[in-house]
Amino acid sequence: MEKKTKFFKKLIWIIPAVMVGTVIIGFYIYTADYYHAEYEAYEALISDEKVTVEETEYGWFFDGYSEDELFVFYPGGKVEAAAYAPFMRTLADKGIDVCLVKMPFNLAVFGKDKAGSILEKYGYKNCWVGGHSLGGVMAASFAADNSDSVNGVILCASYPNKPLPEGLIEITVYGSEDKVLEDGVIEEAKQYAPSQSYIYEIRGGNHGNFGNYGEQAGDGKALLTREEQQNEAAETIMNVVIGKGDRR
User: Fold this and answer.
1) What is the pLDDT of residue 247?
2) What DSSP letter does each residue of the chain carry, written as one string?
3) Is the pTM of this model over 0.85?
């Protein structure tokens, strides 16, 4: 009887330990499989005469000619942050400086509030938060909880999952060939949009071409090149942020 009691006491500890270990291993396997930045993305992290790129504790800062506009960008789920460097560089070249944020395990759900300390670091007149896919959802959630810190949200193939306060501006851009977003999710998310909301469909664009990380599983075939989609998205965003797109 005593041996059986000791055995069952051991089981009480062994079973939870095995379960926790299984969860940890499963999580590691899940997060280790992510989309990597392609070669040209790393090239976009090199400074030139138009945009200075600085590596920071949170990721990278793309410093163009803007002195008033700042955009804190969260990458999509399980996508290496550097994959968005070409798109961020395009935005900086058109008039909005960008903070590209690395996320723990490449998942913005573990870094939703990172924008807070980043916004405090820089003294820009107008501040925006946003991102791609899951990153955009998390950035919108941050904006909803910190509306006094930002002017609005910029969502790429993404949407808010909670009401955005009046006074914020929402800019949403997505591709007509996006097969990753659930059908109707952009339309359904309109219930959370402030009165100043702008939704643009990029004809021929898809989900993955906002970044440079290869083809995304389940996505539609783009009818535009990545450069074309990113440039159109940047022009669309800047038309709202500044009002004139590329004003130079």
Assistant:
1) 32
2) -HHHHHHHHHHHHHHHHHHHHHHHHHHHHHHHS-BPPPHHHHHTTS--SS-EEEE-SSEEEEE-S-SSEEEEEEPPTTB-GGGGHHHHHHHHHHT-EEEEEP-GGG-GGG-TTHHHHHHHH---SEEEEEEETHHHHHHHHHHHH-TTT-SEEEEES---SSPPPBTBEEEEEEETT--SSPTTHHHHGGGG--SSEEEEEETT--SGGGSSS-PPTTPPPPSS-HHHHHHHHHHHHHHHHTSSSS--
3) yes
